[in-house]
């Protein structure tokens, strides 16, 4: 039996991956989960065959600890979910290659090009994909205009906010300042099956803690073409999600790129676009009908998220 290991087990993204593995691959895949918190504070621990508490990624021993776990537990597939883990464990990491571990992350070159918001803007500009204009100097700022500020490396929309030009006195090296885009704001759930790209869109009607809770799910041909254009130039992972908004001229503008499934990807799965289920099959080699997993809605569907209580101990 193969083994899968999910990192950052306390995230909403981890819960969806763990749930999919348990429901769809439970007879073929052992599930291990890691987190910095004890098991009774991690919801996915109740779905795991084994839970392992690990040190913070900020601790110097973290990387070697993870390598020891991967080797001792004989892990086949690794799911890094936060940007720092994705950077540490890209698909072409030589230590993972030595251990025979398949990472759900893309190669390091892709991580560098698309995870950092500044690098993302430069990469997409070369490809010819629109992104919000980046403000790089104080003289460009108009006091009466609103701007959007976010961390160059971040998770979801946490920490992102609007700010008036008159309130900006300096530009931080850890953040990026952009022109303000308009609604709708959509997330694109996407799968790369090695032959083609599959997408579905979810309009983020309501967001809590950076994750969609009310969405309109639909397919958009123009968005599909944009993602295919990126895939033709950059090696993308099996599953990922992208944020779009509209620029001042009403055109789609790519605002963020996540090299993993999203905390809200379960919303798309609820109407038949099961990106994580397809990706698990692709990454593990377990028999999976990818086309059956990735059914797009014929008409727009509305999905709302509710929370459940999990007794962990």
UniProtKB/TrEMBL annotation:
Asked whether the keyword Transmembrane helix is assigned, the reply is: no
Q: Name one Pfam family in it.
A: ATPgrasp_Ter
Q: Under the GO molecular function aspect, what terms does this record hold?
A: ATP binding; metal ion binding
Annotated ATP-grasp domain ranges read: 221-284
> In this entry, which stretches build a coiled coil?
none
Q: Which UniProt keywords apply?
A: ATP-binding, Nucleotide-binding
Among Gene3D superfamilies, the record links this protein to:
3.40.50.20, ATP-grasp fold, B domain
Could you identify this protein by its name? ATP-grasp in the biosynthetic pathway with Ter operon
Q: Origin organism of this chain? A: Caproicibacter fermentans
């Amino acid at each position: 039996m193969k083994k899968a290991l999910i990192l950052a087990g306390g995230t909403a993204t981890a819960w969806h991956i763990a749930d999919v593995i348990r429901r769809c691959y439970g007879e073929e895949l052992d599930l291990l989960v890691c987190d910095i918190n004890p098991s009774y504070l991690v919801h996915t621990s109740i779905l795991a065959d084994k839970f392992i508490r690990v040190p913070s990624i900020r601790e110097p021993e973290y990387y070697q600890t993870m390598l020891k776990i991967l080797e001792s537990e004989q892990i086949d597939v690794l799911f890094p979910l936060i940007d720092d883990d994705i950077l540490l464990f890209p698909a072409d990491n030589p230590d993972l290659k030595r251990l025979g571990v398949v990472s759900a992350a893309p190669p390091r070159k892709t991580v560098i090009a698309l995870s950092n918001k500044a690098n993302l803007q430069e990469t997409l500009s070369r490809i010819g994909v629109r992104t919000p204009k980046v403000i790089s100097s104080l003289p460009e700022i108009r006091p009466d205009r609103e701007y959007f500020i976010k961390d160059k490396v971040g998770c979801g929309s946490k920490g992102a906010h609007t700010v008036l030009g008159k309130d900006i006195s300096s530009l931080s090296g850890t953040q990026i300042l952009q022109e303000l885009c308009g609604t709708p704001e959509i997330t694109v759930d996407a799968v790369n099956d090695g032959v083609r790209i599959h997408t579905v869109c979810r309009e983020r009607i309501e967001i809590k803690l950076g994750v969609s809770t009310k969405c309109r799910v639909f397919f958009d041909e123009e968005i599909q073409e944009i993602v295919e254009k990126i895939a033709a130039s950059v090696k993308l992972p099996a599953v990922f999600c992208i944020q779009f908004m509209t620029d001042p001229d009403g055109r789609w503008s790519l605002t963020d790129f996540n090299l993993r499934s999203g905390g809200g990807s379960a919303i798309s799965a609820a109407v038949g676009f099961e990106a994580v289920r397809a990706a698990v099959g692709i990454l593990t080699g377990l028999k999976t009908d990818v086309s059956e997993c990735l059914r797009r809605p014929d008409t727009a569907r509305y999905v709302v998220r509710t929370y459940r209580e999990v007794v962990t101990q």
